[in-house]
């Protein structure tokens, strides 16, 4: 197993990690020669909580790399996201010319030569050097403990969820983050635990959030602006074709498309996406039969791709 | 008064309060050692592994008076009356650090006019005045705050490590690099460890200095704990490495072929404490820096010294770039590998070890001397609670304002010092308290011109039966509610 990377610019990785660092303390990094995937899932029951899958082209993130393993050259590490983020921030502040990342089997503490080669513990060493204003060259080394994931049990909980019958695809405008702010007030104010998302392609597109408590109140908050609804049938749901669809502005309505969809999710799960939606350049909402997905692109380039999966609570048949 | 020290410069206020806070983070007690030309405060932690001492030269204070004549024997150690000697006469005592920290934590240095410390250690002082440290603080809003805390006299307990390291460094040949007890010395810009500490996660516990291959590295880490092949405890390890040649000065660069190899471990906590503290001493050297953030980041000669020998021996950090103050932090170090430590300690000469160890304070038992009946001294209602009370502060009205500046002759205000003659008044204690409206006061000593006389009348009675007193904390104390009653009981 070998992992050696060099990068000059960590901005993309840093921004992405800062978006998901609030969700969970640990993330899984999956390195393959072509792709780096940052995965935030619940360790025990991956499907009950939202999952985030961030994908990067390794060639755009790293200037030099060496990724080798017996397992199809893929390396899976579990790492504390805050420590990694903190290190990237330190590197950013240091005004250094290159960050080196290496996977080390060596113990990160002081004792020398105590290799723990049998366990799954290792450390991810990040190092860079800079020159302080007394013209001293200072080398910085950060060793973050990581757990190497190998066995099938680890792998099985790291299955990227697929989509269950995509019903509706909508592009959310950049200002949509204000909807999150509005919903946040309801989350604090009452016992709202669930929210029903109702979407329709009629008129100029409708997206409403229904907060309801039986016999007490029912609030619907909906987006008044125009929403770009895309054809679900014509579009594939992987990142590349979504990107193409956006660029083509293909909003022809297919007769087989469903006109209205509804899904109920936990309000908390939905609200956790607020920071991602607020930061990403392009946000696409996919409403499926049993789940809903926020597919986000960090910027114009193809560098970063953040997918936020929320499982639906109750399955309702599309109304008519 | 037999001891008076006044600080009235803004930057010195800050240095003082930060020093107190830094020491209070180490130990429950702060030891004061007063000599004719220096005022030192120090603390040793519970496990006797870290020691911090801050020595203020008398020039640090705007006013500094020490008079050892007729001093109480406990805590006093007579020495050579030589200005340069380390063995001068001294008076030593310990004070609860929490109390001091409470007083100085909340104080905003820029709003102070002066801070005044006073002790009456004369043998003929009244019992209620003995073993008390008084602190008077006057703010710009003309509020005078008075604090008083009891102290316990201790043996001075000289710290040999600093002197012996420095002497050894001076004596050892400059070209020998392989002596087993060689003192290693280096001077480093405090910016490097400071930036290093900013990157170390707060949960890191251990600190390592590693010298090899002509480089020195500082590491902050936590020893790992692994259970079932998973980490239970191991935060990020952070290391910065610089070349030995980039140090301001050191005796570590060898001329021979073998580079020096050293690895020293100790707890990160007190090193952090030291760096935080010296930050205030260096950046406040010039007051301009303090208020101009741009200046703060400019390079300046903010260096400190490190002296160390081997793993297991103490390491000394010293900052001395301010003319008035010297800060010395000593930390007992250890080796990396727990197994080696035991083996090493067996070989170590016992006597050497003792001189290199840190000792906690030795409290001096107060002798069973004739002690004045405290009841009689209560004629001047003393605020001698054993702990520092909440500030006895009040905003003086226009009429009493004059009093508070003029009357407290014991509490000399700096501005009056120059033109006032305190010859006889120096013996007056706590006269400010006499201002409190007490009918008794007026009837008994209306003018309170010479409170020393008043004291002798009631308290300086050597014939009175001795009263056993083991702990000054138990000394009869009068709370504020008792003040009214006590005088009545006499008459």
TrEMBL record, chain A:
Alphabetical UniProt keywords: Nucleus
GO terms (BP aspect): double-strand break repair via homologous recombination; meiotic DNA integrity checkpoint signaling; mitotic DNA replication checkpoint signaling; mitotic intra-S DNA damage checkpoint signaling; nucleotide-excision repair; telomere maintenance
Segments traversing the membrane: none
Domain of life: Eukaryota
Entry keyword Nucleus: yes
GO CC, one annotated term: nucleolus
Subcellular location: Nucleus
InterPro entries xref list: HUS1 (IPR016580), HUS1/Mec3 (IPR007150)
Family in the record: Belongs to the HUS1 family.
PANTHER family documented for this protein: CHECKPOINT PROTEIN (PTHR12900:SF0), MITOTIC AND DNA DAMAGE CHECKPOINT PROTEIN HUS1 (PTHR12900)
Protein name from the UniProt record: Checkpoint protein
From TrEMBL, chain B:
Single GO cellular component term: checkpoint clamp complex
InterPro entries in the cross-refs: DNA_clamp_sf, Rad9/Ddc1
Superkingdom of origin: Eukaryota
Biased segments, Acidic residues type: 454-463
Disordered: annotated span: 369-491
Membrane-crossing segments per the record: none
Name assigned to this protein: DNA damage checkpoint protein
Organism: Spathaspora passalidarum (strain NRRL Y-27907 / 11-Y1)
């Amino acid at each position: 197993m070998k992992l050696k990377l060099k990068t000059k610019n960590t901005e993309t990785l840093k921004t992405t990690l800062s978006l998901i660092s609030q969700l969970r303390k640990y993330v899984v990094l999956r390195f393959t020669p072509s792709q780096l995937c940052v995965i935030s899932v619940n360790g025990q029951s991956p499907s009950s909580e939202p999952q985030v899958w961030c994908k990067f082209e390794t060639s755009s993130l790293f200037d030099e790399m060496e990724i080798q393993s017996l397992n199809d050259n893929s390396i899976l590490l579990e790492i504390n996201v805050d420590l990694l983020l903190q290190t990237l921030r330190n590197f950013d502040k240091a005004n250094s010319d290159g960050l080196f990342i290496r996977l080390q089997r060596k113990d990160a503490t002081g004792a020398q030569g105590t290799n723990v080669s049998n366990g799954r513990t290792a450390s991810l060493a990040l190092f860079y050097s800079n020159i302080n204003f007394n013209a001293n060259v200072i080398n910085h080394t950060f060793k973050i403990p990581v757990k190497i994931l190998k066995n099938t049990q680890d792998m099985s909980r790291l299955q990227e969820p697929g989509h269950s019958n995509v019903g509706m695809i909508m592009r959310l405008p950049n200002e949509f983050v204000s909807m999150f702010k509005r919903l946040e007030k309801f989350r604090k104010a009452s016992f709202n635990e669930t929210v029903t998302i109702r979407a329709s392609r009629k008129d100029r597109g409708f997206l409403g959030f229904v907060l309801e408590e039986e016999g007490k109140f029912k609030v619907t908050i909906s987006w008044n602006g125009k929403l770009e609804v895309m054809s679900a049938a014509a579009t594939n749901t992987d990142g590349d074709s979504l990107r193409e669809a956006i660029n083509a502005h293909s909003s022809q309505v297919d007769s087989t498309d469903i006109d209205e969809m509804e899904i109920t999710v936990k309000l908390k799960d939905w609200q956790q996406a607020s920071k991602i939606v607020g930061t990403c350049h392009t946000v696409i909402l996919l409403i499926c039969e049993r789940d809903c997905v926020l597919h986000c692109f960090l910027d114009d380039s193809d560098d970063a791709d953040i997918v936020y999966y929320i499982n639906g609570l109750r399955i309702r048949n599309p109304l008519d | 008064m037999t001891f008076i020290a006044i600080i009235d410069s803004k930057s010195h206020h800050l240095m003082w309060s930060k020093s107190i806070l830094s020491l209070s983070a180490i130990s429950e007690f702060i030891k004061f050692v007063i000599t004719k030309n220096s005022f030192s405060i120090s603390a040793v932690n519970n496990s006797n592994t870290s020691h911090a001492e801050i020595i203020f030269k008398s020039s640090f204070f705007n006013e500094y008076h020490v008079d050892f004549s007729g001093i109480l024997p406990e805590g006093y150690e007579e020495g050579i009356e030589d200005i340069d000697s380390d063995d001068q006469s001294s008076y030593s005592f310990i004070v609860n650090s929490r109390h001091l920290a409470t007083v100085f934590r909340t104080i905003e240095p820029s709003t102070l006019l002066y801070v005044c410390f006073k002790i009456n250690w004369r043998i003929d002082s009244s019992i209620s005045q003995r073993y008390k440290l008084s602190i008077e603080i006057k703010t710009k809003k003309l509020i005078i705050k008075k604090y008083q805390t009891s102290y316990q006299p201790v043996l001075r307990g000289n710290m040999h490590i600093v002197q012996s390291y420095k002497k050894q460094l001076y004596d050892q040949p400059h070209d020998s690099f392989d002596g087993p007890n060689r003192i290693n010395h280096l001077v480093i810009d405090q910016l490097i460890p400071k930036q290093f500490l900013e990157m170390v996660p707060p949960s890191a516990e251990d600190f390592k200095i590693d010298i090899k291959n002509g480089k020195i590295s500082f590491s902050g880490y936590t020893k790992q704990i692994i259970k079932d092949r998973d980490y239970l405890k191991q935060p990020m390890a952070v290391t910065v490495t610089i070349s030995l040649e980039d140090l301001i000065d050191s005796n570590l660069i060898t001329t021979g072929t073998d580079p020096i190899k050293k690895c020293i471990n100790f707890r990160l906590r007190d090193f952090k404490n030291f760096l935080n503290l010296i930050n205030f001493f260096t950046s406040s050297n010039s007051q301009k820096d303090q208020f101009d953030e741009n200046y703060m980041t400019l390079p300046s000669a903010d260096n400190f010294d490190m002296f160390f020998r081997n793993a297991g021996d103490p390491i000394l950090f010293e900052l001395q770039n301010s003319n008035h103050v010297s800060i010395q932090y000593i930390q007992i170090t250890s080796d990396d590998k727990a197994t080696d430590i035991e083996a090493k300690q067996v070989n170590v000469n016992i006597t050497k070890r003792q001189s290199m160890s840190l000792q906690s304070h030795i409290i001096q038992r107060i002798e069973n001397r004739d002690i004045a009946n405290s009841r009689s001294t209560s004629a001047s209602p003393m605020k001698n609670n054993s702990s520092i009370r909440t500030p006895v502060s009040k905003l003086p009205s226009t009429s009493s304002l004059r009093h508070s500046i003029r009357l407290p002759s014991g509490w000399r205000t700096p501005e009056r010092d120059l033109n006032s003659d305190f010859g006889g008044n120096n013996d007056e204690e706590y006269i400010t308290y006499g201002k409190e409206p007490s009918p008794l006061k007026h009837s008994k000593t209306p003018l309170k011109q010479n409170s020393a006389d008043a004291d002798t009348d009631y308290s300086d009675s050597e014939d009175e039966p001795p009263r056993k007193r083991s702990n000054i904390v138990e000394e009869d104390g009068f709370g504020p509610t008792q003040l009214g009653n006590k005088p009545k009981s006499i008459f």
